[in-house]
Write a structure and sequence with these properties.
The protein has seven helices and five strands. The chain is globular and about 50 Å long. The protein is of the alpha+beta class and 174 residues long. It folds into two domains: 82 residues, Roll (Ubiquitin-like (UB roll)), CATH 3.10.20; 83 residues, DNA polymerase, domain 1 (Orthogonal Bundle), CATH 1.10.150. It has a five-stranded mixed β-sheet with strand order 2-1-5-3-4, with helices on one face.
Length: 174
């Protein structure tokens, strides 16, 4: 089987049927930005994005790597937090920092990946329009519904998305 891991094409010979994506990423690929929290798909700390070809494009969705089987990902694009550059931060990452949307940080990689999947699948007009964003707040909350945080309320995380959208609007207006 073959998959694209971040920016690298990888061939996996005969993956074991019970190996999860999380196990493979951490133990074989040594990618540690992805966290193991519950190992049963409840907390979202292990969230990655999976891209699949749909019609004439790639659609990304957030997936809990602890319950995704590696063997089911042939011809997919697996994106982990490790793929994002440290400088400059992606607008979603920068907004998480600017809005104090993280406390201990353990769940942050999962939140960032869920929000990034939402960001990539959201029309630009929604991202650059405060009025449209406000009407799409429910879709942001839905995108985050698979992520748990025990340290902070979720309001600053949702505010971070709006903040990033506002920044994008300012940039596109210039």
């Amino acid at each position: 089987m073959r998959l694209l891991l971040n920016q690298t094409l990888i061939e996996v010979a005969n993956p074991s049927a019970d190996v999860t994506l999380l196990q493979w990423l951490r133990e074989c690929q040594y990618l540690t930005a992805i966290k193991e929290g519950c190992a049963v798909g409840d907390c979202g700390a292990c969230t990655v994005m999976i891209g699949r070809l749909v019609d004439d494009g790639i659609v990304y969705q957030s997936v809990n790597a602890c319950i995704a089987l590696l063997g089911s990902l042939n011809a997919c694009h697996v994106v982990t937090l490790d793929c994002l550059q440290a400088e400059p931060l992606h607008p979603v990452q920068q907004a998480m920092v600017d809005c104090h949307a993280s406390q201990c940080g353990f769940c942050s990689p999962g939140f960032v990946m869920s929000l990034l999947a939402w960001w990539l699948n959201t029309p630009a007009k929604v991202l650059t329009s405060v009025a449209d964003f406000t009407s799409h707040r429910h879709s942001v909350e839905l995108a985050l519904s698979g992520n748990l945080c025990r340290c902070t309320g979720y309001q600053n995380i949702v505010k971070a998305v709006q903040y990033a959208s506002n920044k994008l609007q300012e940039t596109s207006a210039e």
